[in-house]
Design brief:
11 strands, disordered N terminus, TRAP_DctP_sf
Length: 336
């Protein structure tokens, strides 16, 4: 009897220890300001996770880069013990992983249908890339589709007219694609763009209508033409320290992945993006901006052909799995 009681007590203490081990408190690094929609998604993830686990799993979210970490360092940072979680936009990873940073380029994706078609191949490739750094991809948060429009000081309605002016872009791959089209493109930092447009350093800028008001560009660029493409809609990757992730109980791992999946679904509002872009265009029209017709189908095909060449070059230079990822995504897109 005594032996049985001792065995029962041992089992109870063991269960209590297991239950205690289920209580988890992690830190989630967020470099974005609290007002950004991404920050709201992260807060929602933390709240959803706490609800799913009945308070056993807590994510303490540090917003506005309160942890003083650099996006460019994230592949290195997430291999350490602090923080346990974060998220990153792959183009920020260019120093450490060129293939992930170039996994999509401007000139590939035009609409929600194309993005939905490539998303499984895109996420499969990104997950492979992240795990190569011994980091766990818990899930994804969608950036969405932002119309890539040309804002100009004077009317520019065609690629031929664009070849006669100076265009500001935001990245090397955009420079290469437009130069292949015969356009004089250059990178101008966002904080210098208003003055550059006002003084004629550049005549046009590739910029999303939905956020052009944030730098008041509509005050000095009264003409806009959509290219027909979105800015590269590469999703954010939700990251976890791999050792800490693997140390979670099966229940807590499943809850974390379910909460991440819910955030991805909430952030994937691709059809609404088109409506939001049109609402932005309407507001800008009220401020005196003229929107000219979207580039023609032939012009869009020329942009895509140039972008495909840029993409192939970047992924070949990146080496490793880059060319295989490009082939996988291109096959899903169905574009030559």
């Amino acid at each position: 009897m005594r032996k049985w009681m001792l065995g029962a007590m041992t089992a109870l203490f063991s269960l209590a220890g297991t239950a205690q081990a289920q209580n988890v408190e992690w830190r989630f690094h967020n470099s974005y300001a609290p007002t950004r929609i991404e920050s709201q998604h992260v807060r929602d993830l933390a709240a959803d996770l706490r609800t799913r686990t009945n308070g056993r799993f807590t994510l303490n979210v540090f917003e506005g880069n309160a942890m003083n970490l650099r996006d460019a360092d994230m592949l290195r940072t997430m291999q350490g013990a602090t923080p346990e979680m974060s998220f990153i936009w792959p183009p920020f990873l260019g120093r450490d992983d060129a293939a992930m940073s170039s996994i999509l380029v401007f000139g590939l994706i035009r609409n929600a249908q194309e993005l939905t078609r490539v998303m499984p191949a895109l996420q499969e490739s990104l997950s492979q890339g992240i795990r190569r750094w011994n980091i766990e991809p818990v899930g994804y948060m969608q950036l969405g589709l932002l119309d890539a429009a040309i804002f100009c000081r004077s009317p520019v309605r065609t690629l031929e007219e664009l070849r006669r002016v100076k265009l500001r872009v935001g990245s090397r791959e955009q420079v290469e694609t437009f130069r292949a089209l015969g356009v004089a493109a250059q990178i101008v930092p966002q904080q210098e763009l208003y003055a550059a447009m006002q003084t004629g350093v550049v005549d046009c800028a590739l910029y999303p209508p939905r956020i052009v008001h944030t730098i008041s560009l509509q005050e000095v660029a009264k003409h806009a033409t959509s290219t027909g493409f979105a800015f590269p809609p590469t999703p954010y990757i939700i990251l976890a320290n791999q050792a800490r992730f693997r140390a979670l109980s099966a229940d807590n791992r499943a809850a974390l992945q379910a909460s991440a999946a819910a955030i991805e679904q909430r952030s994937a509002r691709f059809e609404q993006d088109a409506a939001d872009d049109e609402a932005s265009r309407e507001r800008l029209r009220g401020q005196g901006v003229t929107f000219h017709p979207t580039f023609s189908e032939a012009e869009q095909q020329a942009i895509r052909t140039a972008a495909m060449g840029t993409w192939e070059t970047l992924m070949r230079e990146a080496g490793g799995q880059g060319p295989a990822w490009r082939a996988r995504i291109q096959s899903a897109l169905g574009a030559n």
